[in-house]
Amino acid sequence: MKRREFITLIGGAAAAWPLAARAQQPTMPVIGFLSGRSSGESGYLVAAFNDGLREAAFVVGQNVVIEFRWADGKYDRLPGQAADLVRLQVSVIITVGAVQAIRAAKAATSTIPIVFVTGDDPVTLGLVASLNRPGGNLTGASPVNQALEAKRFEILHELAPKGTAIAVLVNSNSPSAETQTNDAEAAARTLGRQLHVLRVANAADIDGAFTILVQREAGALMISGDPFLNSRREQIVALATRYKIPDFYSAREAAVAGGLISYGPNFADSYHQAGVYAGRILKGEKPGDLPVVQPTKFELVINLKTAKALGLEIPPKLLALADEVIE
């Protein structure tokens, strides 16, 4: 072989080596992230999810990729978005922000692992066989938000003017609407309070609900734990402020936005756990073998600035119990 031909051959082989090396490298796994919420309100939750992934040794952009699909509160988008993630053949699907997101993913695939975060009871909803042994292709974190209605009523009972009725705002489209209503009615009976149930399905209904609330002279308002109602927290807080109604929420976000008080699980912790589970599944564990995680800590947040605007004196024992006081 001539020297020039030999050099050309070696040069060509050397140029091909990087391409061959790249071709032999394994493709990074892709996580599908399906949310009923919007990206703008979910930044801190995605950050918590990424922290959970890192705990499982996965770093976005280094050894894992995330494909996001946001429904922006328009739940009719979710089935198409879930089907799109299935077509992409993602390794695992994270479903958050609405029960409808979980159901859309569950309907779209029976083989791709699904990790959910939901405040509803996943057993009652038929998502898993049991909390300890989910079975199938679903598992996740369930902050049991709806199971706290009685405790919230006890707290609100101490803040609402004596003898006045309490109103509760319920998303009529929620699969937990009936359970939430029954729990609220039972709690109100126990405390000897009259209860007005205000059912809403959209933003316009919320405006109308406040008109009814004022007409019925309710002394306080409980907002049921629900992704849709949480997404409308700024509207609800603004109306409660306008009508000077003490308002009680399940999500810390609402108290930070100007609501009077919130009591519920830390959803960022649940998103973190979803990240951990996603990483474990990527390493080969089966979702059906991973127990549904439930929270052990609940946060009481009180907005003193709002209390002062309402002319309310927060009982010292409540302030002592608060995990966070906003001044």
Task: Describe the secondary-structure layout.
Elements: H1 3-24, E1 30-35, H2 43-55, E2 65-70, H3 78-87, E3 92-96, H4 99-108, E4 114-117, E5 138-141, H5 149-159, E6 165-171, H6 177-191, E7 195-200, H7 203-215, E8 218-223, H8 227-231, H9 233-243, E9 247-249, H10 252-256, E10 261-265, H11 267-282, E11 298-303, H12 304-310, H13 316-321, E12 324-326
Parallel strand pairs: 1-2, 1-3, 3-4, 4-5, 6-7, 6-8, 8-9, 9-10, 11-12
Antiparallel strand pairs: 10-11
Helix pairs in contact: 2-11, 3-4, 5-6, 7-9
What is the number of helices? 13
Radius of gyration from the CA trace?
24 Å
Number of domains: 2
For the secondary structure, the number of strands is 12
Describe this structure in words.
By secondary structure, the protein is α/β, with parallel strands linked by helices. It has two domains: 30-143 and 266-296, Rossmann fold (3-Layer(aba) Sandwich), CATH 3.40.50; 146-265 and 299-326, Rossmann fold (3-Layer(aba) Sandwich), CATH 3.40.50.2300. Helices cover 44% and strands 19% of the residues. The protein contains 13 helices and twelve strands. The chain has helices at 3-24, 43-55, 78-87, 99-108, 149-159, 177-191, 203-215, 227-231, 233-243, 252-256, 267-282, 304-310, 316-321; strands at 30-35, 65-70, 92-96, 114-117, 138-141, 165-171, 195-200, 218-223, 247-249, 261-265, 298-303, 324-326. The protein has a seven-stranded mixed sheet, sandwiched between helices. Strand 3, helix 4 (99-108) and strand 4 form a beta-alpha-beta unit. Helix 7 packs parallel to helix 9 (233-243). It is elongated and about 65 Å long. The termini are far apart. Mean pLDDT is 89; it is low at 1-25.
